[in-house]
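Quick illustration, no need to memorize.
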Amino acid sequence: MISTVEKVLFLKGIELFSAIPGEDLAQLALVTDEIHRESGHVIIREGEAGESLYLLVDGRVQVLKGDRPVAELGEREVFGEMALLDPGPRSATVRALTDVVMLCIKREDFSDIMAEKNEIARGIIQVLTRRLRAATR
């Protein structure tokens, strides 16, 4: 079980949240859920409604568009961030390549915090912009 202090330190090490003061990250850490999944488990499925952001604490995942692998993500990487801003369908499937430990933040909880902390919204927009640029190269 990851303690709140460990969650804050972990969040601080993620680019998306690195500019956020520790006391604000503590508020975010309180709404994160720790999730464990085994290798091969589909964490999110393309086309399904999205409602959560995932932060990889340990392990590796594969991102697929249709049946085509498009990326592998590891520790301290983020996926599912579009679901925090848009309730539309997931744009890709993410499957665990190894046993994984993740932190999960639900849209409803995140929206409440984001309304108070516009730096978090800015960080999400920056990540989405970078991923869009990378996808169109």
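The mean pLDDT is 88.
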